[in-house]
Amino acid sequence: MNLELKGRLALVTGSTRGLGKAIAEALAAEGADIIINGRWSKTVGNVAYEIEHKFGHNIHVYQCACDATDPKKIKEFFSGKMLQIGHLDILVNNIGNLEKFGNFFELEDENWLRCYDLTCMSAVRFTREAIPYLERSGRGRIINISSLSSHQPGNFSPHYSAAKAAMNNLTKHLANVLGGKNILVNAVCPSTLSSGGWAQNIIDRSRRDGITTEQAEQLMRNEDNKKSPLGRIGMAEDVANLVVYLASDKANFLTGHIFDIDGGITRGV
Ligand SMILES: NC(=O)c1ccc[n+]([C@@H]2O[C@H](COP(=O)([O-])OP(=O)(O)OC[C@H]3O[C@@H](n4cnc5c(N)ncnc54)[C@H](OP(=O)(O)O)[C@@H]3O)[C@@H](O)[C@H]2O)c1
């Protein structure tokens, strides 16, 4: 299938590693130009260099080193470098994290607020600045990286599930108000992936249960594998493929939807 992404430009937030990097690579493999984002210029530069060398004969890779919790820095990027680049077609809001793992009783106000700031407000800030560009594109796309826990919360980290639920709600709102500008807005909800935050989850579990990280990983894999009809946890590439499809013209009648990508884990019809 030719997804016709050649020449289109995608900003993937939090793309120096984990899922964001996999999404950037999958878009680049389809010929899209990419803006890599993370907090540190050096890391962003290294990843941009790596992707350029992998796919560079075909594409341009730009750099956006800015902290998503600092609205001023995002504004500066859009009024500076982005203005020079001059166009944007796809925004993938990928940044998000627990900040602190814990159950309801272990979480302080500060944990809730920091998680919301990083997970939901980062998307608000990038989206706000990107809209004029996406409108000019004529086929703009916003794809929010949510989580299965946004609508199927577990027993831990309710601050994270709530922030992702807010992101789902925002997705529907933006789809309503941006449809007239031909900007399509969707969210994807991955289940646990064997990349990115997985390593931190293993460390948290080993501390919690007083076991080694190897034992914690084995335990978590067994538990997660059992939940899925497919018998495995997801990979970043599984999610990246869905994002690439949603970014393409093949998905041009899809907006305002929240797509689970979970190997069948979701309970309910
Ligand atoms: N992994 C999973 O199992 C899973 C499951 C469901 C949903 N998700 C969601 O998928 C997304 C990616 O998860 P991941 O596990 O791949 O994350 P990750 O490995 O922790 O990667 C986080 C990325 O975000 C960047 N980042 C972190 N804080 C930032 C900030 N303040 N400003 C700018 N960039 C920042 C990091 O770059 P620097 O460190 O270089 O700044 C890095 O590129 C998240 O929204 C997560 O909630 C993940």
From TrEMBL:
**Xref: SUPFAM superfamilies:** NAD(P)-binding Rossmann-fold domains
- The positions making up the signal sequence are none
Xref: InterPro entries: NAD(P)-bd_dom_sf, Sc_DH/Rdtase_CS, SDR, SDR_fam
Sorted alphabetically, the Gene Ontology BP terms of this entry are: monocarboxylic acid metabolic process
Q: List the PROSITE patterns.
A: ADH_SHORT (PS00061)
What does the similarity note say?
Belongs to the short-chain dehydrogenases/reductases (SDR) family.
The protein in question is named Short-chain dehydrogenase
Protein species of origin: Candidatus Yanofskybacteria bacterium RIFCSPLOWO2_01_FULL_42_49
